[in-house]
Fold this sequence. Notes:
Layout: E1 4-9, H1 14-28, E2 32-37, H2 48-55, H3 65-80, E3 84-87, H4 101-104, E4 123-127, H5 134-143, E5 149-151, E6 168-171, H6 175-182, H7 185-192, H8 195-203, E7 207-210
Amino acid sequence: MSKRALFVSPHLDDVAFSVGAAFAALSKAGWHTILLTVFTQSVPEPTGFALACQTDKGIAPEVDYMALRRAEDHAAAEILGAAEVIHLDHAEAPHRGYDSEAALFGAPHEGDDLELDLPTFDELFVPQGIGGHVDHLLVVRATDHLKARRYRELPYGLRPDAPEALPGDAFAPSGRKLDACAAYTSQLDFQFGGEAAMRAALGGAQERVSRRAPGPSPDRGRAAPP
Ligand SMILES: [Zn+2]
């Protein structure tokens, strides 16, 4: 039976942007690769800041924004050669009372805890939380006790104020990765300033994955909010 690699993505795009080349390489090498995204729940009729997070990406209010992004994720997963795609039913931070950009990159609210029920794996890839987004910090907390490879999030890791990379392995970006990233159409303008800019930014950025060491605490691995 083939070995199982589980990649945990806080949002619909983080794994592809950050470790898409490593994911594609393992798929190609015959691993059973699983793309699991934590915060993917559809929330009907969002209002206020949550709605603004959708409309500022040019998505009309009546569109099911998360359904659209789950479809993008399936398209990306196919390009990456994923054997399995899992969308957990947790709501993104703007739907859990984080009502501003500052709140998204502030401390997790009291009682806002995340418990993860993960499928079995031989290798686990989880984020480091370097961008300081609260959803990423919750995933770091929920996986802190697990022996895992911890990937440095992109594009956060490209910022001049990003923390130093932990010792580990580097993977060169691949064409397959960049094509998969291009499938997240709704995020490209906001995150990079368009597809060409995404290809330029991620095409020049090595993926960095720490070895199976204990994880960084959310505070230690954090960059200052923008
Ligand atoms: Zn994210």
